Task: inverse folding
């Protein structure tokens, strides 16, 4: 005698059979292999390239150590950084100074302001005296060279 | 007579290494070829989203590839299924449980065996399966793949075989009750 098939069980079976579709994803294998290849580490290529890379890194490190000590020795900076002369703005003739009196006036320099306002000869003479080019050697003491430590570079802005 | 090509001797290890690399890559590709669709279906049974399932497949094979695990696998199918299942469960979005879904029961008549199960009824049942608690749905979905035996599913879920069988039975009973309930409502209506 043949067993009766429960219709509800049959319905459930059919629903379950289609619950997870059997359709495949085209190109899935290629995408998997591509992602594996993208993540492939260097040791995938064998131990010899890895050893060569490690040896090269070691040699580089060994070569860098003496250079580092040389760099860190006191006084080493002198050879590399010769004395830096202090730069000063070149002297300007009066007429040029007067030409920039506008900005000077804005900054509040009294002499420049007086020139700009056209005040008389005394102020002008003072300005001209100041504007004379002066020999550095005559006015300043010789530059003393000191061992340079690493300090921030000050840049003096002209004008 | 001296060797005509003195470098020839040195080429051998390099060639062997290249061959080893090629065979290694080739055998992994073969593993992917053999099982990727199977792993995809397991992932899809859990995640229910093809894009999520594909992510799971990729991650599964990456994990297997890392550390050369794939070379030491004894049972490829079970191992891959287990990894895929674990990743898929982690990837799975939280689903709304026990949602009430409407069904127009024109197809669920007094004699359901006589009526063809149309797309709507099938979808309704799929949604009812989705709404099952995970501990019931997962063994049922894995069994529904048709590729796995109960003992394999038990291995994947790390449960005794009897527990898996009981859960599958309980899941089917729940679906059956819901179908009967719907039929009763249809008869009353």
Result:
């Amino acid at each position: 005698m043949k067993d009766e098939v429960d219709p509800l069980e049959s319905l459930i079976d059919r629903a379950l059979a289609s619950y997870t579709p059997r359709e495949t994803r085209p190109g899935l294998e290629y995408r998997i292999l591509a992602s594996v290849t993208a993540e492939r580490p260097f040791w995938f290529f064998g131990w010899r390239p890895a050893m060569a890379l490690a040896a090269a890194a070691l040699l580089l490190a060994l070569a860098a150590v003496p250079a580092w000590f040389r760099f860190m020795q006191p006084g080493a900076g002198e050879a590399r950084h010769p004395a830096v002369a202090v730069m000063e703005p070149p002297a300007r003739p009066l007429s040029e100074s007067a030409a920039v009196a506008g900005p000077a006036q804005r900054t509040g320099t009294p002499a420049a302001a007086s020139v700009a306002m056209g005040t008389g000869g005394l102020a002008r003479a003072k300005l001209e005296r100041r504007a004379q080019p002066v020999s550095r050697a005559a006015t300043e003491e010789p530059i003393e060279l000191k061992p340079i430590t690493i300090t921030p570079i000050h840049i003096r802005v002209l004008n | 007579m001296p060797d005509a090509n003195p470098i020839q001797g040195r080429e051998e290890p390099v060639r062997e290494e290249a061959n080893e690399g090629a065979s290694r890559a080739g055998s992994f590709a073969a593993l992917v070829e053999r099982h990727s669709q199977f792993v995809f279906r397991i992932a899809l049974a859990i995640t229910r989203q093809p894009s999520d399932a594909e992510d799971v497949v990729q991650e599964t094979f990456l994990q297997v590839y890392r550390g050369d695990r794939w070379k030491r696998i004894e049972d490829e199918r079970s191992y891959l299924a287990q990894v895929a299942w674990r990743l898929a469960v982690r990837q799975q979005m939280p689903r709304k449980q026990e949602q009430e879904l409407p069904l127009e029961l024109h197809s669920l008549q007094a004699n359901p065996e006589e009526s063809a199960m149309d797309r709507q009824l099938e979808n309704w049942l799929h949604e009812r399966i989705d709404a099952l608690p995970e501990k019931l749905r997962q063994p049922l979905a894995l069994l529904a793949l048709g590729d796995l035996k109960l003992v394999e599913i038990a291995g994947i879920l790390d449960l005794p075989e009897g527990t898996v069988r009981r859960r599958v039975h309980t899941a089917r009973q729940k679906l059956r009750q819901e179908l009967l309930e719907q039929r009763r409502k249809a008869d009353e209506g």
Remarks:
- The helical segments of chain B are 8-47, 50-65, 76-91, 119-130, 134-144, 150-157, 161-188.
- Chain B touches chain A at residues 17, 20-21, 28-29, 32-33, 36-37, 40-41, 44-45, 50, 54, 57-58, 61-62, 65, 111-113, 117, 121-122, 125-126, 129, 140-141, 143-146, 172, 175-176, 179-180 (CB under 8 Å).
